[in-house]
Design a protein that fits this description.
alpha/beta, 12 strands, 30% helix
Length: 269
């Protein structure tokens, strides 16, 4: 039996299909990290830790003349975002309603996408995850408060840092929601869109990244930033009462920045 307990939910197969479809639709735009790092898996709910290929020394000898070492691993972190759907709405769905109220699901999808992006780009200390911006070995670049027309200079400087470190492109640019909106709305002299200019500089995608502060330029050459998925994002059933069915979105993963020099953080001053 799956730990998600989906078969125990008092809903129809059609309702499950609609919930899964709504979850995918809402999650896909916000999962920015997955567009810029290497994704491995899913490896299953029972998968618990990432092998780091290293050992730590244990004090003393368990038996004279016998040395002991312990394998080092990075435990996966589990994220869960609960939500509810009213039983009245689920019944309406079964009757063919197309305007089912999934607001709580949409909000849960937004929350867990932010949490994942935050862990990947800025770290999750309590889980032993160092984020890309934290790990970067390059000096941070200040973006200024609102001078979006200066972004090409800042991003070109970040790309130059990466090239000088021997990190080839193409590169991707993760932008906070505010920064992304500013970039999309800005045109340069002659009416040339700033978005297109930045894409030419990095040679790769510009990604709307809720949970990111400022921006991060990342090499897309591969092998530098590793996201290992145990259970990929899934909808599970928790319990129900007379009025509502209680669900959750859940995932497990680890993240490693194995090449700190392959990214540059751009901060809002």
């Amino acid at each position: 039996m799956s730990h998600l307990l989906r078969r125990h939910a008092p809903i129809t197969d059609d309702a499950w299909n609609e919930i899964d479809s709504e979850a995918r639709e809402r999650l896909t735009p916000g999962l920015a990290a997955r567009k810029l790092v290497d994704f491995a898996g899913p490896l299953g709910w029972e998968y618990s830790a990432t092998n780091l290929g290293r050992v730590g020394e244990l004090g003393g000898e368990p038996v004279a003349g016998v040395q002991a070492q312990q394998r080092r691993v990075l435990p996966l972190v589990e994220l869960r975002a609960p939500f509810t759907v009213s039983r009245d709405e689920l019944r309406a769905l079964d009757r063919g309603a197309e305007d089912v109220d999934f607001d709580a699901l949409d909000a849960a999808a937004a929350r867990i996408a932010v949490a994942e992006n935050l862990a990947v780009f800025h770290g999750l200390d309590s889980a032993g995850i160092e984020g890309i911006a934290q790990a970067s070995s390059h000096p941070t670049i200040g973006l200024g408060d609102d001078a979006f027309d200066r972004y090409p200079t800042h991003v070109a400087r970040a790309v130059e840092m990466l090239l000088s470190a021997g990190i080839r492109g193409p590169y991707g640019l993760a932008l906070s929601p505010d920064a992304y909106t500013g970039v999309v709305e800005t045109t340069e002299r002659g009416g040339y869109p700033l978005l297109d200019h930045l894409k030419k500089i990095v040679g790769g995608p510009l990604v709307w990244a809720p949970g990111v502060t400022g921006a991060v330029v990342v090499s897309l050459r591969g092998g530098d930033f590793l996201f290992e998925s145990g259970q990929d994002l899934s909808v599970g059933y928790d319990h129900h009462d007379a009025e509502n069915v209680h669900f959750y979105l859940e995932e497990s993963f680890s993240f490693r920045a194995v090449t700190p020099e392959a990214a540059v953080a751009l901060t809002v001053s």
